[in-house]
Amino acid sequence: MRRATPTFGGQHAVVLHRPDEGIERLLRQLERLGLTVETRWSPLRSSEGVDLVFVDADQGFDELLPWRDAESLVPVIGLLQTEAPGRIAWMLERGAVATIPKPVQTAAIYPAMIVAAALHAERREARARLAQLEERLRMRPIVHEAIRIVALAHGCDEEAAYRHLRDTAMQRRRPLEQIAAAVAASGQALPEAG
Predict the structure, then answer these.
(1) What pLDDT score was predicted for residue 192?
(2) Helices 176-186 and 106-154, axial angle in degrees (round to 10)
(3) In 3D, which of 92, 44, 41 has the Cα closest to residue 71?
(4) Looking at residues 147-170, what average pLDDT do you find?
(5) Is the backbone of residue 141 left (phi > 0), alpha (psi -120 to 50) or beta?
(6) Would you tell me the crossing angle of helices 158-172 and 106-154 to the nearest 10 degrees?
(7) Is the CB of residue 189 less than 8 Å from the CB of residue 156?
(8) What are the Cα distances from residue 17, in Å, to 46, 129, 155?
(9) What span, in angstroms and rounded, lies between the C-alpha atoms of 187 and 81?
(10) How many Å from the N-terminal Cα to the C-terminal Cα in the chain?
(11) Has residue 42 got a pLDDT over 70?
(12) What value, to the nearest 5°, has the Cα angle with vertex 46 and ends 41 and 49?
């Protein structure tokens, strides 16, 4: 699926970096792209109201960002001059999905923002899919119990009982797991399942 190229006008970016010439270049370019920009060298306490974060990966410290384990709440772009594996690892652990080499060159900024926005969206969608699959996996024993209850109540095999549950879920426009939970909780088959 091809995504539309994001626009950044009206968004708010936070640049976590000490002032220097390269960062001034970054700030001017972000403002030209229509972003409001805040620059600071103190920990970001919340991502509320922040759409994009640029972080100094060379000097960054653990408390600089309010998340860990690459579960960033907004797209993160690392600003990196060093090739030290530990600094690269730190940047990745904080959720950076794109990098701008330092000293910052204007031509590197917009492509990094596009990549960061796209990869962050993909990560967010993947986490949502994973959570949904984990929930379905957690519900499997309940679905099996509901299948057993329906099979006993209607004297049918498990395959037919599953079809009954599935048909009930479709009729009620509810997830199968929700119908199965109702059957398992009541201990008896629902009227639509028979």
Answers:
(1) 54
(2) 40
(3) 92
(4) 93
(5) alpha
(6) 120
(7) no
(8) 17, 34, 69
(9) 63
(10) 41
(11) yes
(12) 100
Q: Rounded to whole angstroms, how far apart are CA atoms 147 and 166?
A: 10
Burial (CB count <10 Å: 0-12, 13-18, 19+), residue 27: buried
190 pLDDT higher than 60: yes
For the chain, state the CA radius of gyration.
Answer: 25
Residues 6+ apart with CB under 8 A from 140: none
Contacts 24+ apart (CB under 8 A), 124-133: 127/71
SS (HEC) of the chain: CCCCCCCCCCCEEEEECCCCHHHHHHHHHHHHCCCEEEEECCCCCCCCCCCEEEEECCCCCHHHCCCCCCCCCCCEEEEECCCCHHHHHHHHHCCEEEEEECCCCHHHHHHHHHHHHHHHHHHHHHHHHHHHHHHHHHHHHHHHHHHHHHHHHHCCCHHHHHHHHHHHHHHHCCCHHHHHHHHHHHCCCCHHHC
Q: In what order do the strands lie in the sheet with 52-56?
A: 36-40, 12-16, 52-56, 76-80, 96-101
Q: Are 147 and 162 in contact (CB under 8 A)?
A: yes
**Residue 1's pLDDT band (cuts 50, 70, 90):** low
